[in-house]
Write a structure and sequence with these properties.
By secondary structure, the protein is mainly α. It is built from 17 helices and no strands. It is globular, with a radius of gyration of 22 Å.
Amino acid sequence: MAAEVTPVSSGAYSLCKWMTFWSMYAGYTLAVFNRKCFSFSMPAIMQNLKFDKDQLGLISSSQNLAYTLSKFCGGVLSDRVSAKVLFAVGLFFSGIFTVALTAFQTATPFAVFMFLQGLVQGGGWPACAKILKQWFSPAEFGMWYSILNTTMNLACSVGPVLTTFVTAAISWRANMAIYGLTSLVVSVFCFFCMWNSPTDVGHPSCADVGSKNEGKSKGRSRGRGTWQDMLRSPFMWVVCISYLVLFMGRTATLDWGQLYLIQELGQSPYIGSLFISSLEVGGIIGSILAGYLADKLVALSQRDDVQGSPRMTVATVYVFIYLAGLHCLSFLVTSATSHVWVMAVGFTMGFGIYGPVSLYGVMAIEAAPTHLSGTSHAIVSLASNIGAILAGLPFSYVAKHFEWKGAFIILEGLLIGIIVLKVAARNLEYKMVPTKKKLQ
């Protein structure tokens, strides 16, 4: 039997809670910096080491493959080991592998260490999601999950500027060394300044309290359930399919939107970069607002049934906003379009796409039993990563035959299909463990 933990005071509890959250925020921002360090430094590396496109593709693909596999495994692992340790150790080794990149001159070791970078980073986000569910109640979980999700927007908007400055002032090797060494220091800080759950400081977990309250309101316990129950859940499949298409759209917009503006519409590289920056800014605002609105709807819809999810309603509205922005990009933006209009379109698309990206992760965690929340998140994350892969070579292959505009129009059709699917499935039971299983 585990030793009983003496409860800390309410002030100390609050301190532990916010130290945990902001440690995750700082740590995961650095994790994204490390994961994207090669992409941020690519122009300087191409000039300095003379890598060709095939070598650059090999390096990027090696990391993406490793990250896709390890993120799924990391989600499952977060249900079985300390999420804090999984996060801190992953960040520590990520920093080591980033520093190691500064020692090489050829593509092969770059590919190897970027593959290792992807492997150690996969458990980071599932661990954060697991910890977040323990510390935040259902009424506030969505908003703080969305705020934590802005680490990706922050890193992708600040990273290129910071990398350009450091590379120009010193070198790309110094830039990677700074990212890596900072990660080593912060990973140690995270290990000592994060707690897996309020139970570590003698207080009940918010996830456990939510489950007990739910059991009282329904007159039954939540039960245990298995991962097979989740795979049999229609709600899980709706979330996975939606997440796959949305993440394909997000990745295609980030990877090819700028290229579409420059190559097909004749806009300048400066306008292309403004589009991407506006996308990220819109993503930060949209993500936080989506979490806030979804939490409000959850708080207002305290029902005895388990049909439908208020968060899915918000996600559906956001998909429609992204679809409107994508339609504007495909049909209303031309070579003569002003930079203000291009930025507005980018902001709208970012606002619309990052909201549901956050909410799908929240729904996967919230709808699963507490002991399987990491596994549930891993399953939907696998779907999203498949979407990212489809946004690469398959999407570019379609664009090769139908131009970028044709590829984006096909993406519009897929998004319309997702909206129809979610409207049709709006009354599905969103708890992934069936009611009969809960009663046993």
